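Limitations

Structures in this collection are predictions, not experimental determinations, and the ligand pose is part of the prediction. Treat each record accordingly. The example that follows, with pyridoxal-5'-phosphate as the small molecule, is included so readers can see exactly what is and is not provided: the inputs are given verbatim, and the output is the predicted complex.
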Amino acid sequence: MGSASGARYPADALTGLDPADGRPLLARYDLASAAAALTADALLGRRSGGMWRWRELLPVRDASFVTSLGEGSTPLVRMPRFGAGLGAPRLLVKAEGLNPTGSFKARGMAAAVSRGRELGVTSFVAPSAGNAGGALAAYGAAAGAEVTVVMPVDAPEDNQVEARILGARLILVEGLLPDCGQVAAAVADRLGAFDLSTLKEPYRVEGKKTMGLELAEDLGWRLPDMVIYPTGGGTGLVGMWKAFAELEAMGLIGPERPRMVGVQAAGCAPIVRAFEEGAEHATPWEDAQTSAAGLRVPSAVGDALILDALRRSGGTAVAVDEASIMQMQRLAGRLGGTYVSPESAAALAAVPELLARGDLSRDEEVVVFDCGIGVKYPVPPGLPPATVVDPDALDVEVLVAATG
Ligand SMILES: Cc1ncc(COP(=O)(O)O)c(C=O)c1O
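Predicted complex:
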């Protein structure tokens, strides 16, 4: 394990934040050995296995501790019609909603629960905006571990139900994610549970990293011009940036990098503000509000890592307003055939904004991370009610005129 403080820690002890500076720790691998095993051909031979195809770059030593529900290997979907509608015909969408529990959170929790079990953990706790809690509950259940999930009281109801159906203890907090983090820390302390708060431990980011590994493989060992990622705690973005460095060190890709773009909601945009101010760290956002639950993260433990990746890649940070998120959710449905979460809609809404700013050009290849499915969220405001008809008095012409 290594961190910004320069300190190194043994990999086989359960680890949280760096005791030297309270900042995130990141796993380090013997990349020369990994490169010998993880060749492009060897990967082709590992057709099944999802994200565990990359096991040499994941933090579980003994495969018998892997708890898998089929996470990873999500499709990278070309969306020429939708892309052209947005002004970016070379749009690709990484369909992370096809993971178990409907979001990319499955990857991180699969890695963390598996490694935690290997290191003797029997009880896990995590604060969650919604999707992470569902994912932790699922992997905890499959691994036979106790799970406590702490969500804001107004987290999407489907996420709350999901966590409970999956056997977790659910605690609701009058407050936002940092308040949930405090409750989770107290639970960890009192119950002896391992705290899986975003980037307060080094294992979840390793699972999320596999999104970047898959991206390079799916594009034939190259990377796109731009990657757009809906950024709350930022684990996926930090993980992908780490993945690219590991792939380069292993000789699987060259030094080229995509411009990384972090997208936040205008009602909670601490990373965007820090990016624009040139700050190394983000100051907490007051009165955070957005329908994109996973983006309602007023302060991120990994802020410096996120900002560093955005800057070093030549990328940027974008805030999109609620109206654009809602509009884009409908547009993705109508033109793309995909019902995306508000977080994913925020990331897609950055495409026209980046084109208008001149940060993206029409002929460039851009990958947007669709991190979660839309069906788990409340009905979007403004969606007109469906038409109800009397089957014995059906007048199709009137119906078509009324429903368009
Ligand atoms: C669907 C969705 N997208 C994006 C995010 C933000 O992810 P991260 O915290 O890794 O930045 C979340 C987090 O809850 C999410 O559920």
